[in-house]
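Recall the central idea of this unit: under ordinary conditions, the amino acid sequence of a chain determines the structure it adopts. In this exercise we apply that idea directly, starting from the sequence alone.
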Amino acid sequence: MYTYEHDEAVRKLLNKRTPVLPDKMIKKCVRKVHKMSDIFHEAREKFGSPLYFLDIPSLNERAERFLSVFSEAFGDFSPFFAMKSCNHPYIIQTLAGMGFGIDVSSGRELETAISCGAEKIVFSGPAKTMTELELAVRHSDRVTILCDSFTELNKLTVIGKPIRVGVRLTTENNPLWRKFGIQHDELEQFINMAENSCVTFCGIQFHSSWNLNPDNHVELIRNLGKTIQKLPKDHKKRIEFIDIGGGYWPEEGEWILADTAEEMKLNKQLLNQPCDPLDHRYLPATDISTYADALSAAFNEHILPYAGCRVFAEPGRFVAHGAIHMLLTVEDIKQPDIAITDGATNMLGWERYEMDYFPVINVSQISETEYPMMVLGSLCTPHDVWGYAYHGGGMSIGDLLIIPDQGAYTYSLRQNFIKEIPESVVFSGINHELVNCTFLTQSQD
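Accordingly, the structure predicted from this sequence is:
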């Protein structure tokens, strides 16, 4: 039944205004790509197209910034890179070499982290199999298991060998998120069971995602403090670490097509008018330093009075965001408004650019001006979209295009759908030597 409340909800949605993406933010991204145009051309000349282009200086910069900011805020702090955000072995090796631990969510990811030299690993994720847990136990010198349920604790008891464990707590009442962790009021029972088994209980984990600001994260810390406060004194002493999870958004915010904004979707449905392809919107994100300070203040107030422990965090998207760029070549111009590239969106495994906005940058005809044009991939599906506009002085067959900042939740989701997975090359930043590192990925497949 349609009611007055529905009318009010529609009016509020139509009055909502998702912020326009500032032109200066787009231009900053485009100019960064332009400065590297010779390097991109060299990569294509050496290794062909399409390519995953690994930008190690960008990876290092973001990783060092996160580590510096959170170490300053928390003092006793350890980062664990969330491998699900980007499982490229070269990136895992690089971060492990910088002192990052690795957060894995499957036996396969655990094998990759071990082979890449990770010395500190936390194993999270629901419904771990006996085989996966046995693998973790065999590497108990470097692995801490973050149990997701009592069932996993029982499996470890059956295995009967010592290993350090923490436990994940459920954070949301959303039905789909209830699959993760145990309830807060079950924590004391879990610790009691762990004490009577072969494992060593040592920590607590919680996680939330898509955190454009610290508000939800702060609330989770506050609620965890209430839970810890109720624990027996000897249980509190056993908490060596609290893993505050991930979900930290890049400071650029979330860039989206105008069609993706909620109020614009409704406007399009009501008026049947497509949005301007040059109209880009974004959801602002909190500066990571401000974010870390907010979490630290909450931790000092709600946790430290009851449990003097160290802090783990699991950054993924924030660290990996700028670590990979997509390198493509224009293979065909079908119409004045349709270009088709040799690379396809099986490189990222989902229809990202029908919702998210990233600039398509032509480094063969350099210009900061953006023009409407459908830039599509070469898969036999209409959902193979790179973008609806491009930055450049024109578009011709053979032009080299760059889709920047595709390190997070693209490579990990790649798939052999219609076309093969492209090769990877590495730009070290020390010199312009480009190293084919495809053998690293093949060894993990």
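Confidence is low (pLDDT under 50) at residues 439-445.
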